[in-house]
Every structure is written in C-alpha cells, then in structure tokens.
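G., the chain you wanted modeled:
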Amino acid sequence: MANKGSGGLILLVVVASLIGFGYLKSQQGSSAEPPAPPGSETGGGTGRYVALGDSYTSSPKTGAQAGGPPGCARSDNNYPHLIAAELRPAGFADVSCSGATTANMTSAQQTKNGTNPPQLDAVNASTTLVTIGIGGNDVGFISLARECATLNPNTSPCRDRMTAGGHDQLAERIQATASKVAAVLDRIHTKAPKAKVIVVGYPTALPDGNGCWPFVPLGAGDVAYLRESEEKLNDMLAEQAKAHKAGFADTATPSKGHDMCTKSDTKWVEDLVPTSPAEALHPNAKGQRAMADAVLPLIR
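Predicted structure as tokens:
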C-alpha cells in the first residue's frame, strides 16, 4: 500500500510540473451574501420548480454557496439557478448535492460538512417542474477518472482492469443503475403527478481521439474507454427518461468540442487542474450555462 501511495504522489508531482498549478483563487466562490434558501419565492411567475442531482448539478465553486448544507457545495450559478432566473417560478428548491447517488433521492446524504435530507422530500403535489441529473456516482465515473491517471500515455490501466476476464464492469454498473433511475422517476411522478420531469444528461468530458496527455494524464485506451462509457450512461438515461414519462436534455452533443482537452477559453468541463472557477473534472460556468440552454427548450 505504501508503494501505491508513493506512486500516486509521484504522479501528482509530475503532472503538476508538466501543466502547472493555475488553480484560481476565485474558485472558492465570491464573498457575496448567499441567495435565499431553497424553496423561497423567486419571482412573479407561476409553478414550483425542484432541482435534484449530484455535483454536475450542484456545480461546486462556480458561484456563491446556495443553501445548505455547505458540504453539498451547491452554487448559485448552476444550471437550476440559471433556469429559475429565466422562468421566475413562484417557488424554487435546488436540493442537489455533490456526491449524491440515486439512493440519496430517498435517503439522507452525509457530507463532509452537514447532512442533506432525502432530495425527494422537496418534491410535492404543488411541484410543476423537476429536473434531475443523477447516475454518474452510482457508476463511479469521477473517482475512476482520477484513478486512471498514468505516466505512460501508451497504457490503459483502467480499461485493462475494468474489462479483465471479458466483463466490462462499467457497462455492468450502468445497466444496474438503470432500474434505480427508473424507480426515482416513478417516485417523482407519484409525489408530483402534475410535474414535467426532465432528466439531464452528462456533458462530453473527453474528446474523440487519443486525448491530451499529460494535461489530462490518461492513456489513449482509457480516453476511448471512458468516453464510450459516458456515452452508454447517457444512452441509458435517455432510455429511462423515455420509458418513464420524462424528457431528456442532451448536454453531450452541444458540449462536443468544449471538453477538458480544449483551451481554457473554450472548455466547458475542467481537467485535473482547473483554469476557471470549478471543481476538477466538472463543468465550469460556461458549461452550466450550456446545460441550462439544453434544458430550457424542453420546458417552453
């Protein structure tokens, strides 16, 4: 175990020396007064909008803290808040939380700083719109992407490990998550029978081709494997949305060409060392704006 830890430390040092630490201090968010807590009146419109999801929804570090607990790292500049600013519903509750899984839709989530109640507690009979971005943590994409980092661009440690023995573990996890997403969608319809429900897909994180080692220190084989696996995840989410009376917001198509390998002024998803305020391997403010733009046409 010590050797493994040392290897990880060496890898981080090498990667840091190759790409530099351009981590902006502004990532910590502004010191502005946080917005009103979730569920407050937001405008002169009608209806009640509830946003559910994981960190691709809560969007850590892209804005000021919005509501609690702090451990959810929920930004006031995430796509739910951008959508709410345009719709101006009478009621709005963003209960998304970093690290959330489908299980946290119906059970409380313990974060490093506070407990987030079951997200579906925010959905009730008066709810008219629900967006949900979930499933990535059930599959384990973010943690796996960090584990795949390599000093040799010609290797593919994650693909080799995850497909050993002829079984694609990521594909199996995606398949196993489908029924969980289905159950959540059914539960939303039960709690809010009049609500329009929209499943929000995951934006394109990796480019076609071999990637951009060392800036994103993944071997060519792992770039392809993770990219194709994300496509399978989005396909599954779209299928479950269609089968369970929900819309599907495709964020992958518009985000192609804005992946973590593109230039800092072009990318919508940050790499291991963000160059704009955002969590590593997550959408930045431009990415959140694009996700909102993918959802809005399904509402209007």
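Residues 220-243 form the longest helix (24 residues).

Shout if anything looks off.
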